[in-house]
Structure formats: structure tokens, C-alpha cells
Write a structure and sequence with these properties.
mainly beta; WD40/YVTN_repeat-like_dom_sf; WD40 repeat-like protein; 5-stranded mixed β-sheet; 4-stranded antiparallel β-sheet; Methylamine Dehydrogenase, Chain H; 444 residues; single chain; globular
Length: 444
């Protein structure tokens, strides 16, 4: 059978396969923060709230690309092993050629707070190597962003005002690239580097993008382009106006289009849109703005949005961009015609081609399968108060977070000198991982 890019059908509602995560009694109620497919698509790796990694295996019915679904019945995803960590997980990344069929490459790197970067074997969770970053106070620094170069021989780690570069084959210490301004260049990137992305081109002079948690100022941007052999001097900055200013928000993710390496997408914290730039031309103006949280005439206020990172993805063909929101909706954008807006003076705002309700909680990440028309969505977030419009069933299931129960305790102890106050407990409304099939959809 001839290989080709996955083809997505939006003529009918997609079929869903769902799996709930296990509960954690030590750290409250567990939920997945994000999930990433293994490069060969055989498994997905989810980062969980309870400081662990959860493997999700693709159902047997979907292992073959010519699978035809005969019924709309929901099937459980197969939950695999769990790899626990000692501290909160900041970021992780699969090795570029990872596959369970090639044990040597079946691994991933993880950044855990106050620990060296760890290269973990995905088959059993054992430590293969560690890469340490030490600051001027001789403290272990955990990077907020991780990225392999395309050849897989270098690991880039972003942290405050710098990028640490490691030779994957030589564990230990790496070389440091400072991104702040210097005597050599007044331009720089300040703050914690929260996002890294490599251009999908095997050109020896390949470049990568880096984004900072520091919001942009009116005259500087928080996204810069570097070459792989950089000394810390940026090639350029991405902005939204001629003055050079960027988005007044922290960068949460950067990603290049897999088939058009000159297109870069960026998302920002508490912002309901994704920006794209064409790096071949004027980088002072976005190519398109993909809005998923409201209309262009009535965008949502940042105060109404979650502070949680929302991870988007672009399918392997480079045509579809998908992202979830805090209302549990998934938006699909057609980005294939973005080059047509190159000569426009005003940046167009693009609305979703398809939007559907996928989960009953914030969707932390979505991910396209590498070779099949499947989309993985994970949901869950911390809730401390009940929604007045719904979720009443959660009140009886999780009484420790109910304000009425605490008031009863206070009335019982009103005669005492001290009133007992219990610490608030967070809970997710929908802690789940769902697999959406856009190939053979059920006609509802």
C-alpha cells in the first residue's frame, strides 16, 4: 500500500475512544497535563499532575492504517506503565527516532524540578544518562523547555537568560549560550526560556526559535530566531508591529509547520489565539492570527481565561492546526492557504473550520497521530470551587472542597478558642484522555 499523509474527514462527528487516569491519594486527584505521541505513533506519553508519566497504548483496532470502524461504541484505551518522579515535571521530549521496535532509540528526556535533565528508557523507566545544569550559586537548575535538534545528537535546554546545549552521547555538563544583551549585541532575550522549536530542515545552517516567559514590551519581542551554531546573538525577532513590539504575554509554545519550514506558530498564556509568521519575509508582522476563544469583534478577556498552558499541534501534512480551550472545545484550523496573505497590509484573523465539544474540563493538549487521522486530547485542571451552573454531582463526590462542610465544622467548634480550618483540595471535573477518529466517523 502506497504511503501518504493522513486525510481527515469533517463530514460527520468523530468517533471517540476514552481512558480515565488513575487516582492519586497522596497528591489529590490526578489528571493529565499534556500528552505527546511517540514519533512512530505506537504509544503516547502523558505528563500527569501527580508527578508521573503515564504510557497510553494505541488500541489494537487502530494499529493498521486501513482499519474500518464498524460501530460507534466507545472502547477503553490501554493504560501502560507509570514512571513516577520525585518532583514536579517541567517539560519532556521524545528522542526524534524513538520506537519500541528499536530499543536503543526508545527513550525520552525529562526536566524535573531541582534535578539534572534525565534521559529515561521508555521500556522500563531506568535512567540512561543525566545532564546537569548548575547556576552561579551551584544549585541544580531544571530547564523549562527541552528540544532535540533534527539529527538527535544535541539537546537544547532553555532556562533563565540562557540555553544549555548537551552532546547526547556525552552525559554530564554542556555548553552555555547566554541570550541576554551583551557588548557584542544590544539585542537579547530575557527571562525564563519557556519554549524551543527547531526548523524541520536538514540544512547545516538550521535555525531554531526560542520564546520567553517575560511579556514583550512596546519596543522588544519575546520570540527570537537563532542559528544552531549560535553564540547567543539572535538572527531576528518576531513582532506584531513595525516598532518591534511583541505580544504582551508569556510564550507557552512554539512549533514549525512540518511541510513548510518557513512558517512558525506561537501561543501565549491567557491569549485565545495562535499567531503565525513567515520567516522568509517581514517578521515584524504576523502572517495570520488563528482565533479559537471568540470572534474577532468580541474577543474574550484575559481575565476569563485559564493560566494553564494549552498545547496545540499541526498535523503531519502541515494543513491542519488544532487546539483545545478551557471550555472543553477543540478547534481545527485550515492553515494550507496561509501563503495567500503574504502581501496583505492587515493581518487576517482566521476562525475555525471545525469546532466541537470534546471534554468537560480544560483541554491541556491535543496531538495528531504521525500516520493516521487520529487526534489525542487530554483534559483536566485544578478546581477549588463548584461551578454554580453545573457539576453538582461533584459536590457529593468531593465534600472536602465544599464550603458548606467547612461551615458545619466551624459551628461545632464555635465555643473553642481556635477554629479548625482544612486546607482547600483541588479536583478535576474531567480527568481523561480521548482519542478522536476522523477517518471512519459514526453518522450520528
Amino acid at each position: 500500500m502506497e504511503w501518504g499523509y493522513p486525510k481527515y474527514s469533517f463530514s460527520a462527528r468523530p468517533e471517540v475512544v476514552m481512558a480515565d487516569l488513575w487516582e492519586s491519594h497522596d497528591l489529590g486527584h490526578n489528571f493529565p497535563r499534556m500528552a505527546k505521541w511517540c514519533p512512530d505513533g505506537s504509544v503516547a506519553l502523558a505528563q500527569c499532575e501527580n508527578r508521573s508519566f503515564q504510557f497510553i497504548e494505541l488500541p489494537t483496532d487502530y494499529q493498521q492504517s486501513d482499519t474500518r470502524v464498524e460501530s460507534p461504541d466507545t472502547q477503553p484505551l490501554s493504560k501502560g506503565r507509570v514512571i513516577e518522579q520525585a518532583a514536579p515535571i517541567l517539560d519532556y521530549a521524545w528522542y526524534p527516532s524513538a520506537s519500541p521496535y528499536t530499543p536503543a532509540s526508545y527513550c525520552f528526556v525529562a526536566s524535573v524540578r531541582e534535578c539534572p535533565v534525565r534521559l529515561l528508557d521508555a521500556s522500563d523507566g531506568r535512567l540512561r544518562a543525566s545532564y546537569k545544569i548548575v547556576d552561579h550559586r551551584e544549585r541544580q537548575v531544571a530547564p523549562h523547555s527541552l528540544a532535540f535538534n533534527l539529527f538527535g545528537n544535541k539537546l537544547y535546554c532553555g532556562f533563565e537568560d540562557a540555553i544549555e546545549v548537551f552532546d547526547v552521547a556525552r552525559p554530564g555538563e554542556g555548553s552555555r549560550i547566554y541570550t541576554t544583551s551583551s557588548k557584542k549585541s544590544k539585542d537579547g532575550l530575557k527571562g525564563i526560556l519557556s519554549a524551543l522549536a527547531f526548523c524541520p530542515s536538514y540544512d547545516p545552517a538550521s535555525y531554531f526559535a526560542a520564546g520567553s516567559l517575560n511579556p514583550s514590551s512596546p519596543y522588544s519581542s519575546n520570540i527570537a530566531i537563532f542559528t544552531e551554531g549560535t553564540d547567543g546573538t539572535p538572527m531576528g525577532f518576531l513582532s506584531i508591529d513595525r516598532a518591534g513590539g511583541g505580544i504582551r504575554a508569556a510564550v507557552t509554545q512554539l512549533q514549525f509547520n512540518p511541510t513548510r519550514a518557513h512558517i512558525l506558530y506561537a501561543s501565549f498564556r491567557r491569549t485565545d489565539c495562535i499567531y503565525s509568521w513567515d520567516l522568509r519575509g517581514d517578521m515584524s508582522s504576523p502572517l495570520n492570527i488563528y482565533r479559537y476563544g471568540g470572534s474577532a469583534d468580541s474577543p474574550r478577556s484575559s481575565h476569563d481565561m485559564t493560566n494553564q498552558k494549552l498545547r496545540f499541534d499541526v498535523d503531519p501534512s502541515g494543513r491542519w492546526l488544532s487546539i483545545g480551550d478551557q471550555r472543553g472545545n477543540v478547534s481545527m484550523f485550515d492553515v494550507s492557504n496561509s501563503d495567500a496573505t503574504l502581501n496583505m497590509d492587515i493581518t487576517p484573523e482566521v476562525m475555525p473550520t471545525l469546532q466541537f465539544h470534546a471534554n468537560d474540563d480544560t483541554i491541556g493538549s491535543v496531538g495528531f497521530h504521525p500516520s493516521q487521522p487520529l487526534l489525542l486530547s487530554v483534559s483536566g485542571s485544578r478546581h477549588f470551587h463548584h461551578d454554580q451552573e453545573g457539576h453538582a454531582s461533584h459536590e457529593s463526590q468531593y465534600p472536602q472542597s465544599d464550603s458548606s462542610s467547612s461551615s458545619d465544622e466551624e459551628s461545632d467548634n464555635v465555643s473553642g478558642d481556635h477554629m479548625k480550618r482544612s486546607a482547600p483540595h483541588s479536583f478535576p471535573l474531567d480527568a481523561s484522555i480521548r482519542l478522536w477518529n476522523f477517518k471512519q466517523s459514526w453518522q450520528g
